Amino acid sequence: MKSGRSHIDILAAFLLIAGFLYGIALIWLKLTFPSGFCGRVLFIRFSFHELDRPLFIALSLILIGLFLRIRNLHVPITTRGAFTIGTIFFLTIATLKVLQYRFYVSSAFDLGIRANILHNLIRHGKVWDSLTGRHGFSGHFWPAAYPLSLLFLLREDPRILLILQSLAIAAVIPILHRVLESRGAGRYSLPVLLLYMVNYYVHRVSAFDFHPEALGIPLVLLSLYFFEKNRDIPASLLLISTYSLKEDMAIMGLSVSLFLFFTLGKKKLAVHLALFSILYFALSLWMIERFGNLGTRFETHYGGKTFAIEKFWVPIRFFGAFGFLPLLKIRDLTLIILPFLEHISSSYRPNYLLISQYSAALLPGIFYLIVRNLSEKNCRLLQLGIALSLLAYPFYYYIPPSKVSLRKSRYIDALLKKIPPGSRLSAGNHVAAHAATRDGTVLFPLFYDADFIVVDTTWKSYQPLSYREGRKVLEEILNDPDYEVISDSFGVLFIARRPKSRLSGGAHSEGRRANRVRLPGRPPAGVSSPAR
Hints:
Number of helices: 25
Strand content: 5-15%
Number of strands: 7
Shape: globular
Oligomer: single chain
C-alpha cells in the first residue's frame, strides 16, 4: 500500500511539473520564434489566439496532479449535500450555456432548429422547421416538442431550452447519490459524483447546444433505480416517456429490456417492453419517412464505409473515461449493448465517435453499471476515470477562448436590431440560433431572395453544406449586383439587397431561386414563409 501511494505521489509530482513547464514553454516558444519556425522545426502550428487549447492541456495536467494528491475520497455525503452539489453544478453549467449563447457560440444545429420548431408550434400550431424549410419531424420524430413548446408561453427565448437541459443534466447528481445509498455504497458518493461532474462525455452532451434526448438522462437512471426496487409501473412509464424525446431512445429501451431479462430476471416485463420498443421505433421511422426522407438520413449515417481504424480506439477512450468500471461484469453490458452497437456501426464520424449528443442514451446505463460494480477493491478506478476525463479538458467546448469577444457579440446584436420587422433574413449557422424565433428567417446558405444576410465567416461552418459549397454560395452573392455589403467587421458579413432589387426582384432572381432546391420543403398553411 505504501508503495502504491509513493507511485501516486511520483506521478502527481511529475504531472504538476510537466503541466507548469509545458504552459511556460508554449508561451515562450510563441513569443520567441515565428510560427513558421514552430511548424517546420518544432511541429507546433498555432497563431497567438490559438494558444488556448494547448494551455488547456497544461492546465489539465496541473489539475490532475493536484487531484492525485488527495488521499481519501470516501467522504460521507448527506442527501442535502448531494442536492447542494447538484445545485452548484446546475448553476455552473447553466451559466456556461447562457454565456455560450451570449457570445454566439451556440448554433442552429441543434439549438436554433429545435427552438424554431417550438416557435412555429406555439405561434402557428404546426410542427415546422422554417429555418430549413422542412417538417419538424422530417429528421427526428420527437413528439415531446408539443409539451416543450409550452415553455415558449413564458418567453420565446432559446436560452430556456439551455437552462432546462442544464437542469436535467444536474438532476442526475441527487439520483446517483440515492442509487448509491440504496446499494449501501454511500461512502463512494463523492468520487462517483466527481466522475460525473468532470466526465468528458457528459460535457460533450451538455456543451453542444440543445438536444432533447439529454432530458432523458435522469429519467432513464431513475427508471433503472425503480426497476431494481421492483416498482415496475413507474419505472416503465418513466422509460417509455423518454422515447418521445428522440426515436433513438427506443433502441436504448430495447437494451434495457435485455438487461431486465438476463440480469434482473424480469422476463415477462422484458418481453412486453421489448415489443413496445420495437413497435415505437418502427412507428418513428415511418413518421420520419412520411414527413421527410428516411433514405437521406440513412445514407448520411450508414451509407459510407462502416470500417475505420479509429473505431478501434473508440471503446478504449469511451470506457476509459469511466475508469473501465462498466466492463467488470460483462453480463451487465446488455444494458448498453444495443445503442453502443448502433453508434459504432455508423459511418457518420460524430456518431461512431460518441461525441456531442450521441452518447446521451448511453450515459444513464453507464453510470448505473458503475454503481453496480463499485467495491473497495476497484474504487481506485474511479480516480483513473476522473483523471482521463480531465485530460480531455471538456470545459473547453463551452466557450472556446479564441471564439469569445464581447465587442463582436455586441456588433452582431446591433446588426440584428437594424433588420426591420417583417424582413426576410438569411442567418449563418451561429447567428441563426439568435434569430430562430423570428418569422421570415432561414438558415444560410438558403436565402430565398432574402432582404438581409448575416454570416459569421470565422466559424467556417455552412451546415448542412460543406465549407467549400457554402463558401461558393457566399461568393456568388458577393458578386451579385443585386446585393451589397453593408458592414464587414470581426469576420461577420452584413449583406443587404439593394432597394431597387427589393421592389423588382432583381435581374438575377432566377439564379438565386436555384438555391431553394438544396433543402426542399413547403411551409404548411398558417406558417410564415420566408419566400413571399
